[in-house]
Amino acid sequence: MAQNQSSAPDTSRRSERSRRAIYDAALALVAEVGYPKTTIEGIATRAGVGKQTIYRWWSSKADVLLEAFLDLGNQAAEAAGHVPYTIPDTGDLAADLKSVLRATVDELGNPAFEAPSRALAAEGVVNEELGRRFVAQLLGPQLQLYVDRLRTAQETGEVRPDIDPRIALELFVSPLAQRWLQYTGPITYEYTDTLVDYALHGLAPR
Amino acid sequence: MAQNQSSAPDTSRRSERSRRAIYDAALALVAEVGYPKTTIEGIATRAGVGKQTIYRWWSSKADVLLEAFLDLGNQAAEAAGHVPYTIPDTGDLAADLKSVLRATVDELGNPAFEAPSRALAAEGVVNEELGRRFVAQLLGPQLQLYVDRLRTAQETGEVRPDIDPRIALELFVSPLAQRWLQYTGPITYEYTDTLVDYALHGLAPR
After folding, report:
1. Which range marks the domain in which residue A113 is found?
2. Where do transmembrane segments lie in this chain (chains A, B) (predicted)?
3. What does pLDDT average to in each consecutive run of 10 residues of chain B (206 residues)?
4. What residues in A contact B158, CB-CB < 8 Å?
5. In a domain, A180, yes or no
6. What is the pTM of this model?
């Protein structure tokens, strides 16, 4: 028993080290060679683990990568002092949306995030199955937080009751996404602040 | 002289036939094997022309493809009975934007357009130089038409004078682009109509 009690934390530390090495290897590899050429074997070699270690935890390279991205998002949020995947509710919708979008601007400019994210996003454009998994597992839950925040704003009267929050969020989220994906324009805090103001107040005179 | 007069149209018809065969081959090939594996040689073989014929007119595969896309857009617009690359100005901004976005919905669902467009867009996400050429030569001129239409709407008082039209257009153009690129939601006329209404009138109560 004493033997088991002292070895359990060691095993868990070893597992955690392997898991992190596998995430890092998967993200680095997809950034370097793209999704089609990334293999479980390549990830294992780079992480210094056996293929079987990977197959014990995940069933495909898509699974490894999607989890590595979830972990990356959590790490980035913690490093920035945010709770991952939340939108503040200070009672001022415009201020809350601007603050989250500014944090997204920072995240998009983070080199650890950018290359692997672009590789996965690019593959999702031509690989519908991966694209839809990416939405279901990563992007969708993030968008849902905006839906929830907009619903609260409908309750407090900051957003019209007849608005569909799932479409409304796209007025400020999608422009930033397109500028990042397609290089259609510069990405700054001033830009995302402007998107929020235009979306809330509209382009037509009041 | 009589000889020359009769042979000139033949040469021109032959050139036009070769040019069209090259466009078709380039679009089909990029859709099938992706941008990195598309080569001038592969395009020439598939089009049934010599490599030199392609190099006489274009200096790179990116040039061929970008021109093939411009041509595809013109053909699609003509087939649909539209003048290519215009936005109507009936004096009703909402109606004009809805009509153009509905035409874009049709274009995005066109199989001749979809596969090659996805291949080029995906490459643009990870290949900044190609992404920026794509914007400069294809996407940018299309977005400029929205800038122009919004400026006219500012003159007639349908859009507030302090709005930046280059950012404003993204409130309805980018959501559609993101749904198409990332499979984040269904693409319908009802959806694009809603985007225009939300963008013009805003999410906040008036």
Report:
1. 61-201
2. none
3. 53 86 96 93 96 93 92 80 80 97 91 90 94 93 96 98 98 98 97 98 96
4. 204
5. yes
6. 0.90
